Amino acid sequence: MINVRTDLVLEAREIYKESHKDEVDIDGIEVIEESDDDIKVTTVKVKNDEGAKKIGKPKGNYITIGMPDFTAYDGETMDRVSQVVSEILQRLIKIDTEKTVLVVGLGNWQVTPDALGPKVTEKIMVTRHLQTVMPEAIDESVRPVCSIAPGVLGVTGIETVEIIKGVVEKIKPDLVICIDALAARRVERVNTTIQIGDTGISPGAGVGNNRKQINEENLGVKVIAVGIPTVVDATTIANDTIDSVIDSLINNSSSGNEFYKMLKSLDKNEKERLIKEVMSSKASMDMIVTPKDIDLMVNSLSRIIANGINMAVQPNMDMDEINKFMG
């Protein structure tokens, strides 16, 4: 497994295949591709321990939604993506309507690229309290939903999973949905990809800041993870740029092709290690990069995810009814 920072299973599979070109298929990995007009949906099923070991991800189902360009700027496209998110979540939510759902917004609300989770929780239709406070105003078909944004260890001094576990033990939800900002390997997937998985999540893993996993094993309840990559490692950008420059030189140079091809064939791990060493010596730290319009993107993307979750957990309500409820 190449040591590249990515939370996306689709990319982990791509990286493995790039380094094992002799393998046509990866044992233990099944891939299903669908499309809904210009929205591409790819399901990666990690079916056994061998497949999990090869791509470095737990066994389970991972659904990746590829959004059209400029989705965050087009309300109609945002609604279409929300509908796809809702349909995928409904496939994974196998509980009765009266069962309780806890929505958890992971991340640091003070850091914009990491604020996706908390911003989603602000837009979730919370109903659990209404059954007690004003039962006459709530229909029996409305599922009890509650929401929390527990913050991050550096702000609270408490492991995120410990906060969530305490809430889970108190309110006993039947399902937990976690939302988090992710890290991508490829720049083109930043803010354009949604990953939904049924294996839980490890906060901070994509940026090398691993925390305790938030999963069924640790919480005692099924966990669905929803994430969007908002950052990419600067090392991977530098590496891809160097490869592009070398490709251009190979294509346009009438001589010296062998030298450029030699550079191109350098071991990927060794090349990335050298790039990281050079960058760290200049900046004295690892650098994580995010787009300049991240404020707008996180606001739009949080709306897409929140609407998708609201429709999925309230299947007896349409979007207009949910919007009326939210005021």
What is the topology?
Blueprint: H1 9-19, E1 29-36, E2 39-46, H2 49-55, E3 60-66, H3 75-92, E4 101-105, H4 116-122, H5 130-133, E5 145-148, H6 153-156, H7 160-171, E6 175-184, E7 193-197, H8 216-219, E8 223-233, H9 234-252, H10 257-264, H11 268-283, E9 288-289, H12 294-313, H13 319-326
Parallel strand pairs: 4-5, 4-6, 6-8
Antiparallel strand pairs: 1-2, 2-3, 3-7, 7-8, 8-9
Supply database-style keywords.
nine-stranded mixed sheet, Rossmann fold, 327 residues, alpha/beta, hydrolase, protease, 2 domains, 13 helices, zymogen
Brief rundown of the structure:
InterPro entries: Pept_HybD-like_dom_sf, Peptidase_A25. This protein has 327 residues and is of the alpha/beta class.
Largest sheet: 9 strands, mixed
Secondary-structure element pattern, one letter each: HEEHEHEHHEHHEEHEHHHEHH
Query: What structural class do helix, strand and pairing data support?
Result: alpha/beta
CATH class of the largest domain: Alpha Beta
Give the name of the CATH superfamily of the largest domain.
HybD-like
Kindly give the count of domains.
Answer: 2
Number of helices: 13
Low-confidence stretches: none
Q: Mean of residue pLDDT?
A: 86
Helix content: 40-55%
Overall number of strands: 9
Give an overview of the whole structure.
The chain is α/β, with parallel strands linked by helices. It folds into 2 domains: 9-231 and 292-326, 3-Layer(aba) Sandwich (Rossmann fold); 236-283. It is 42% helix and 18% strand. It contains 13 helices and 9 strands. Strands 1, 2, 3, 4, 5, 6, 7, 8 and 9 form a 9-stranded mixed sheet that branches. A hairpin with a 2-residue loop joins strand 1 (29-36) and strand 2. Helix 4 packs across helix 12 (294-313), helix 9 (234-252) runs antiparallel to helix 10 (257-264) and helix 9 (234-252) crosses helix 11 (268-283). The model has no long low-confidence stretch (mean pLDDT 86).
